[in-house]
Amino acid sequence: MKIAVFSTRSYDREYLSAAAAANASFKASHHFSFHEVHLQPETLHLTKGYDAICAFVNDQLDRATLQSLKRGGVQLIALRSAGYNNVDLIAANELCLPVARVPAYSPQAVAEHTVALILTLNRKIYRAYRQVREGNFSLEGLVGFNLHGKTVGLIGTGRIGTAVAKILGSGFGCKLLGYDVEPNRGCRDLGMAYVSLTELVANSDIVSLHAPLLPNTTHLIDEQTIALMKNGVMLINTSRGSLIDTQAVIDAVKTGKIGYLGLDVYEEETELFFNDRSLEVIPDDVFSRLLTFPNVVITGHQGFLTKEALEDIAETTLKNILEFAATGKCRNLVRA
Questions:
Q1: Residues annotated as part of the active site
Q2: Domains by residue range for the chain, with CATH
Q3: Average pLDDT for residues 46-62, to the nearest whole number?
């Protein structure tokens, strides 16, 4: 199979190429072509003559795109991600165009980044770093709080949420609350109490999001949810940007209702993240407003970016392609 890989950066090429070189079956019959651009209507011509498309979170896989891919002879969409909210699964099902994903890749990577954001915000690491670089060793404005004994509410307790619970519960001595449609026995064993969403946000000192983006989770954190939270709450999102209503969060940061905000994702990140915009004017006024707050830390969707996670992603992507090529099926297919 000829596979066109979109939204690639140096690390994608490095780890996918290494995995392909180490796999004799793949190397004998399959070939990657790498493209830095996103898959979107303007780049569909790059898919001509390919049997499969390898896409990432910001590639556009709506009905019109999928129809064009199907007409062009594409047989498989291989996602390099666990999330698939950028894919019109109903259209893919109607077109008999299978979509495979990487359901789990080093959940510790995202979990550890989540905790890194918590510690960075709490202990003002970003501010202290800048001050010391400038020769300012004053401790004014750097007071944090002990994580030990604080209540952390985890919305979503799958693999990543569980990994966060282990770090914060067993490692830091935090009290754990969880909200999930399917409670996790492993989290209960850590001492987590499962409660309603309203009870979780009302009683948590830190609220961290680890849920998938679905129609019923879009803007799960909105004006009404925020109103129930403790004054000065810390809100962390390393899952999907659209889980929070960004404007409502901005309003809450302005009033002090949200005292700390850590984001690794943003609901309008497609045209921003994964690219160097340092010499450009950012046209997104909402995002620009977020950057003005001293108690907001934003990273550019790098929670997954560890060597272990990249190795897992590359190996699972190859397995998905090989399995589909051999059998026409794949255990990691996403169902509509």
A1: 240, 269, 301
A2: 2-105+306-327 (3.40.50.720), 107-298 (3.40.50.720)
A3: 96
